[in-house]
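anyone seen this seq b4? input:
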Amino acid sequence: MSNRLALLAGTAVLALGMGAANAAIISFSNITAEWINGNPAANVTTNGPRDASNDPATARWGTPLTGGGPSGYDFTITSDPLNVNVPPSPSPFVLGTFDHRNFPIGPGTSITSIQLRIIADVKVDGNPVAGNPRTFLFDFLHNETPNSDNPCANGGANGVGVNINGCADQVTFVANPSSESFLIGSELYTLNLKGFIGVGGDPLNDPVLTEFWTAESQGNPAWLVGSVERDVRQVPEPASLALLGMGLLGLGFVARRRKAA
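predicted toks r here
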């Protein structure tokens, strides 16, 4: 990443985190990232786990039709450790840099989906959580569109804007229910992915996008925004727990009265 991009990424971290009342400091350390489970598996190669000091974690696919090489994704961790202030509401931060190297490839040699696996030790206010390291999974869907369509899959005209070199491809992320959780106080939290920023070149003004249209015959960099959030998949609301307990006590009381009668 260039010095300018690094500066913008740092500014984006500050801007996204402003105005939050700190409840805890979450630290992710010994972080590794790896692309896994590309589909179809026969089409994709990856370079294994990478940490913040290595080259990017890469996935490559496709039979090249030009001198640009295969297509693929790159992901580079922003820093290690990553320290996040977690208020009661979600606390977004830049998780790393993402780049879709989008080059023309032969039919049937693309992927349709892949996962980004991040493994890290987690500390809450300096205290390691039980069960480290934790594994966080993020699913990406890939739409390799026909380059010669007009209009293109994004609705735009071929040869214009993001379709300047042929129809743009689409990268989308979706939530993965398999990511691990950790305790902050008495509640479970997890590391979620919010989307892409900086697609338009200005992370301070760009919205966070869950889909990313990428131009052909070039790299397409952006930043991936993460957020530490309460894990509602596994933790019932306290009121629900109380109602459940009262309900069980009530059933026990009724059963005892029937037995006594």
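The helical segments are 3-17, 238-260. The two ends are 78 Å apart (CA to CA). kinda curious what u guys think
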